[in-house]
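Entry:
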Amino acid sequence: MTFSLTGNSYGVVVIGAGSAGCCAAIAAAESTRQPVLLVERYGFLGGVSTQSLDTFYGFFSPGERPKKAAGGIPDRVVNLLAEKGEIFLRPNTYGAGTGVTYNPEYLKLVWDDLVSSAGVDVLLHSRLAGVEQKADGGYRLALEAPGGTLAINAERLIDASGDAHAAYMLGAPLEEAGTLEAAQTFTTTFRMCNVDLERYSEAGGKNLLQRKMIEAVETGTYALPRKKGSVHAMVQPKCIATVAVRVPFSSPFDPWALSAAEKEGRRQAYVYEAFLRAEIAGFEDAKIIGMSSPQIGIRESRRLYGAYRLTRADCLGEARFDDAVFLCGAPIEDHRMDADGEEETEWVYIPNGGVYQIPYRTLYAAGFDRLLVAGRCFSADHSAHASCRSMAQTMSMGQAAGVAAALSLDTNRAVHEIEVTRLRQRLEAIGAVIEPPASEAKIGRDDWFKNRQYA
């Protein structure tokens, strides 16, 4: 590799500053005195949490007796949003449990503040171009930056890129989505302003929307890609966010296919705009104010074959593990299309409103002593990934990976050799939820704002 810029050496480098990467960097920096670097290809932190979505799912299990399944740094994120009134709880209207809806623009500032307060160095507008292992076991990274190629040394590496870029470059064992099972569809989310939400609600709200979507598809009045979709109120008054566009999966690593998917997602968004304005009460004067992401939403791409692979049976069997580092109670939510192009979304709930544990072994692979992963590239089969991909869980696994990297660094042990008991103790000390709660969570909005505590 040839470098045109001089970089620095770091104890921990995190590739990708989505919700997993930010939490990994914060946790690592607060757990070791070694310097930590967070690398992000866009000009802001947060990944999907600030690019395309505005609701955290996975903090609570669905059902009448919800359990809280995430804590620690994720709580700090939510509390900072709540202090400024940039958040509200959204009832279980679409099946995934209580959602935590926030202002994604303000969340960019929250991530900035938390990452900076932890002492993390941040490199924006930079992406991983290459990585190789050095003779001493550490890594040498090539980062494409605006001024050239930057050389960085890292003692420990956390791949939170979503696409497992670092793991792929290092030759770690990976599964590419779509090779073993049908992969989840892509989505272009979009937002609209000037919506009369009161009128929409009075006219039937969700029920009206679903009835009209079914009619539009069956009569061919509008070329909608699916019979079901969602719109919901944003923190900003008279604005709504959507999850409605559905683009068939194609390889995220094929630039021609990805280019076509981007154009198709935008085209569908404006079909939806015309449909909503003409058919749904309260939307008559509404307009799209933006596609909600710099790129189309990709639910899965590459996943690690780790020291353990979380399975569908683990999720539905409420699995317990000695090396558990976080929880999940979210249903398997699998957005697919059948051979005829029809929607085929699968919803499968954890029995009895339960939760399951996720082991530390899903965050590393055998033979890669200084590499951890966090986010949607963690080690899981297709169905388990479709449950454990909510942002509360990606934040939790980032938190676990960051603490583990720091412990590995400070004890001079490989990531698979650290004492899991110490890892769990450190995680619990910062508020992580590892053991299933004994009682249901209190999630009333009034209590939350009064106490300014998300618990």
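The radius of gyration is 21 Å.
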